[in-house]
Structures are given as C-alpha cells and as structure tokens.
Amino acid sequence: MTEKPLVSYERRPVRPDTDAPLVAYLILDDPERRNALSDTLLDQLTESLVHAADDPDVRVIVLTSSHERVFSSGGNLDAFADTQPIITKYAGLKRFPELFRTLTSISKPVVCAANGDVLAGALGIALACDLVIAKRSARLGCPEINVGAFPFMISALIFRATGRLVANELMMTGRLLSATEAAEAGLVNRVVSDDEFDSAVQSWVAEIAGKSPLLLGLGKKALAATRDLPLDAALDYLQAQLALAFTTEDLSEGVRAFKEKRAPVWRNT
C-alpha cells in the first residue's frame, strides 16, 4: 500500500484565465503530527521545490499547510531522543541545510504562507523563503530550549532576519511571538486577519507572478550572492548584474509597456 505523501504539490493559475501564469503550492500535509519535520517530510519538500523550480510554467512557489492552526511544529522530537548512533543522526541533519540552500538558490520567488504556528525548525524554513505572510492568529518562535535543545541550525537565519538581541531572546527563552510581534521584529512581511488570509495570499502571489520571471531570478541570485560580501565586492558584483539586465528583452519591454500604459508581455529573455 502506497503511503500518503506528506507534501502535496498543486499547480494553480494565479487567475481563472486559462493562459494565466501558474503557481506551485507545496502543502505540508501531515496534520496528525502537526507537520513535524521528519526526514520523509523534509526529503519530499526538497524534491517538490526542485520540481517546481524546474517547471517552466510556474512563476511563484508557495509553502503552506493543510493544518488549520499549525504551519509546522518543527523538528521531530522523537528523533531527538532515539537510540540511533550519533553518526547516523549527524548524517541526517544535512537535510536542513540542504533545504535552506535549495530555498535560497531557486531563481523563482518563494512565499511562505504561514496559515498557522511556525515553530522551531519551521521558522528556519520560513526565513529561508523570500517573503512571509502570516495569519494574525499564528505564533512564531523557537521553543527548543524548553526541551533541553537549542536551535543551532536556524540561528544563522534568525540573525540575518532580525537584530541580535531579539534573536537571542527568541532562542534563549523559547518565547513565542504573535504574528504582529514577529512582523515588528522583521520576521514577517505582512500580517492578515484569518478570514482574509487566503484571498490576501492569492492577491500577493498574483502581483509577484506578474513581474518579469527573468529579472526576478537575476535579482534573487544577486541578493543571495552579495548578502555576506564586503560592500566593495558587493557593489562590483551588482554592477555586473545590472549590466547583464540591460541586455535583456524583458527590461526593454518593461520600459516600453510603462510608457505605453499597458501590461508588459514578458519574454523571459
């Protein structure tokens, strides 16, 4: 008997139009375990991301959850205390950095639609996405310290998203932030009331999908490449990327469409 996938993959048009761009919805779908980040779920999520990245019809990728109140509860606690050899556990830990690197290396925008609590390792997943939109009722945080663990793997992502003192408080106290508090700390882009969440996600995704896929991809690559570079090196890299953008048809089309007061027709070249 084939086991039910823990990550559902759905392609949806951004609008009802038959020729509208497509969005890939990757839905964490293990509600009985509150979408705990098991090895199987992490493997399926990474595979689904690669599949969406390679799909030429997909403009935007959305990560969300089938659970009504939880995006993901984070790492599988049972695995923390099992009796597997340390070397086996260490080898398994590569799934988290592999997933984070996949999220940042994909040329397409990735949106985390946090329709529930985003906890522990799942906070790292959210912060590795390009944009985060959250339900007002959602909570975010890393409570690992409460069970004698520490959020080692996601600390680098937290420090890149918020200030040192906020990051330390999150990791050292295990306190959960409301979605509004998380937005004030720079961990969330937008907070939406629960009853308006789905329509807000669709509207936001449609707006992003209407941009040039080529320029979004070049821009995302540039952001990832220069994030940790010294200023001089970053400016040299960005100058080269701007020069590359000038050679694209999409940049010329975007300017023409703006002057002609019409919607651009992206050629992705």
Automatic annotation (TrEMBL):
Transmembrane segments: none
InterPro entries according to UniProt: ClpP/crotonase-like_dom_sf, Enoyl-CoA_hydra/iso, Enoyl-CoA_hydra_C, Enoyl-CoA_Hydratase/Isomerase
Gene3D superfamilies: 2-enoyl-CoA Hydratase, Chain A, domain 1, Lyase 2-enoyl-coa Hydratase, Chain A, domain 2
Molecular function GO terms recorded: catalytic activity
Pfam families: ECH_1 (PF00378)
Top-level taxon: Bacteria
UniProt family annotation: Belongs to the enoyl-CoA hydratase/isomerase family.
Descriptive protein name: Enoyl-CoA hydratase/carnithine racemase
Organism encoding this protein: Mycobacterium rhizamassiliense
